[in-house]
């Protein structure tokens, strides 16, 4: 929509321009709630070797990733699946999955809802 600035009164011009500037500031400075990409110390094949290496992954996540994510209620190695089982609150399950699967191989995790 085109606005004819000559027809607007000076106050209207200030309001329109102020709103546009405010919208740009909010868009470019808003915290999207997604932590920066995390580079793991090892690849998925390394972590899948044994329970000890999966516990090493859990410690790495606890130190570097989990503090930046909300809703994680518990986690630990599941001997039946051979994966790290992460239990997450329903409200944040999708976001936690998205962040972890962006940074790590899906073969490492099993997500459950709290």
Characterize the structure shown.
This protein is α+β, with helices and mostly antiparallel strands and 114 residues long. It has 2 domains: 1-30, no CATH class; 44-113, 2-Layer Sandwich (GMP Synthetase, Chain A, domain 3). It is built from 4 helices and 3 strands, in the order αααββαβ. The chain has helices at 10-29, 44-47, 51-64, 93-103, and strands at 72-78, 83-88, 109-113. It has a 3-stranded mixed beta sheet with strand order 1-2-3, with helices on one face. Strand 1 (72-78) and strand 2 form a beta hairpin. The longest helix is centred in the N-terminal third of the chain and has 20 residues, at 10-29. It is elongated, with a radius of gyration of 23 Å. The protein starts with 9 loop residues before the first helix and ends with a strand. The relative contact order is 0.14. The model has no long low-confidence stretch (mean pLDDT 86).
Q: What is the N-to-C succession of helices and strands?
A: HHHEEHE
CATH architecture of the largest domain: 2-Layer Sandwich
- Total helical elements: 4
Q: Distance between termini?
A: 48 Å
Low-confidence stretches: none
What best-fitting shape do the alpha-carbon axes yield? elongated
User: Compute the gyration radius: what is it?
Assistant: 23 Å
> What's the CATH first level of the largest domain?
Alpha Beta
Calculate the mean pLDDT score and round it. 86
Number of beta strands:
3
Total tally of structural domains: 2
Given helix and strand content, the structural type is alpha+beta
Strand order within the widest beta sheet:
1-2-3
